[in-house]
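Fresh eyes needed here. Kindly weigh in on this sequence plus C-alpha cells:
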Amino acid sequence: MPTLPFPDLDVADLPAWLDATIAAARATTAADVLDWTSLTGADVLGPPSPVGAYASAAWRRFAVGLFAADLACYPTPVDQVDFENLAFAASRFPAGFRLYLARTAAHPALPVAYAAWHPMSEGSFRLLRDHAHVLVDRSLIPLTAAVPGEADVYLFNYSVVPGLYGSALSKTLIKQLAAEVHAAAPRSLTAITVSEHGSRVARRFGMTRRAPLTVEGVTEDVYIWETP
C-alpha cells in the first residue's frame, strides 16, 4: 500500500500543514516539477470494515491530500469543497478519485491536482438537468457502482494548481479522466463549472451548458451530455 507523507485527521498540526502545503502547491510551476505520480482512493483502501474507507489510515491521509489539492486549486472560498462532502464522496466511490502528486526539489509528494467522478442516481441527474435553479449547493449522493451503459456520471472535479495549467501533468489528468469515464460507458455526463477553464474542459467532453446554478450568491454553470 502506498505511503503518503500527509497527516492523519486527528493530528493537531493539520491546519498548519494545510496552510504550508497549499502555499507550496500554489507556488509550483511546471519548471519545478521533477516528476509526478497519481493514485486513486481504491489504491489505499484497507481490509473491509464496518466503518468503510475511514478505517484505513492510508485512505484518511489520501482524503487529506485531496482536500489540500482542492484548496490549492481554488483560491475563492465559494469554489472550494467542504471536507465532509469530499470525504463522503471519495469513500462511496474511491476508484473515481485520483490525486496527483508532484515531486519537487523541496517536496517529495506535493498535492497539486486531482480528478474525480462518480455515478449518481437517475433522480439526481434529472434534478440537475431540469431543476438546477432550486439547488443551493453542489452536494450529491454518489452511488457505489457504475453500471456500464446505465450510469449517470457526475464529474466531481478536474483541476490543477494555476502554475500547472497547460502542463504535461494537466494534459495527463484530462486524458486519464476521459479514459476512466469512457470505460464506464455512461448514458449521461454532468459537470458544474466555476470558471471558463472548467467550462472549456466540459465542452471537450461533449457537454453543453444547460442551466445556471447559484451557490452562495455566485452563479455557476451546469453542463450536460446525454445519449439521445
Q: What stands out?
A: The chain has six helices and seven strands. The first strand starts at residue 35 and ends at 40.
